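writing this on my phone so excuse typos. first protein, seq and then structure
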Amino acid sequence: MNYFESTNATPQYAVRMAQTLGDVRQAQSLRYRVFVKELGADGPLIDHSAWLEKDDFDKHSEHLLLLDMARNDGDRVVGVYRLMDSESASIAGQFYSQREFDLEPLIKSGRTLLELGRSCLHADYRGGAGMMHLWQGLAKIVRDRQIDVLFGVASFHGTDLETLAPSLSLLHCDYLAPRDICVRSNIYEALDRGTVWDRVDAMKQVPALMKAYLRLGGFVGDGAYVDYEFNTTDVCVILDLARMNQNQAALYGIRNDLDV
């Protein structure tokens, strides 16, 4: 079992790419803790005996890790992003998101794409500086690789569309992507649920990470995808650097004035 031991030490954050199979296993262990134990996900490739959440895309992806170097339990990975660029997606056969969304508008745009996936933080590190450090590491990758568009699946917990109707309707009303980058869910569930909703209450239901993307100027694709194995309702979030909110993006070290 790879649960973390509690610690009262002040975190000493470091961000780097996974370099070894051991690094990847620590990332998969954290993913198991968050997605399987906390959120009830399941799937054919999840290794319950080893407590690893994994799939076939892992071997084609890079893993950006947030580590707490103050931990003394040997398992220092407390945050992760799984990254896949177009070249890796070509080798894998597709982006992970293509299982759920038609990405043709993005792929045919000719712009430099980077898919963000399996993002999670250990529960003890949420609401603090951890996510900021992880985002700053991601910002360096964006700069170094001259990325134009970030995208990926973002999830609501649960599969009851009526419960999620106010939030989904809010996303459709206020954050639907421009036509040139608007993807569509493969098994289409409309975001606009035709329901009366209160803006404040609807936004409260939106997961924190999704709200962070929206504050940066992110958009959502057309339609939701219900993932019953993972016990989630998914939307595709798209961050076009040329359209980002620069006041917010500056907090993470991301700019849209790159030579891209």
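second protein below, same order as before
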Amino acid sequence: MKRWAQFIPLGMFVLLGFMLYRGLYLDPRDVPSALVDKNFPNFNLPTLVDKKVKTVSDLYGQPHLVNVWGTWCVSCRVEHPFLVELAKKGVSIVGINYKDDNDAALKWLDDLGNPYLFSVDDEEGTLSMDLGVTGAPETFFVDDKGVIRYKHQGPITPNNWPKLKQVWLDLRTTVGS
């Protein structure tokens, strides 16, 4: 056997070690969404509060943050007070209640405040699956034409809002263009 062939396992080991080392420094929340710059998926779901059916056309006309949440989600509880604060400041937020118990979700909104213009009941998780949701909370920044412009995984907090606020402001300034 040729002498250089003896070094193939060592080379593979070094390459694998480098890839694993590199993976330690990747942020899993930086996974881009395949839906960015694409239309929000069609849906036909009832709202939690009044059971009125909403569709994707209800997102047209103004930009929204579309927030996927659930009462079973610990990070959603961390995020919720800040969403209430954002809504009071005029940020338009639509909710997708993901695979949740409706009574628990309604109690959550009564107890903690309701930041949502409306929150649809995605009990089966079909809309969330169409969005490629990997876990709650996830928030989609949707423009006035119903096009997803940005996806944020994890809670929106006072610490990360300054960066996200710029995305929101960009959506607000492009309304109608």
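The first strand starts at residue 44 and ends at 46. thats all i got for now
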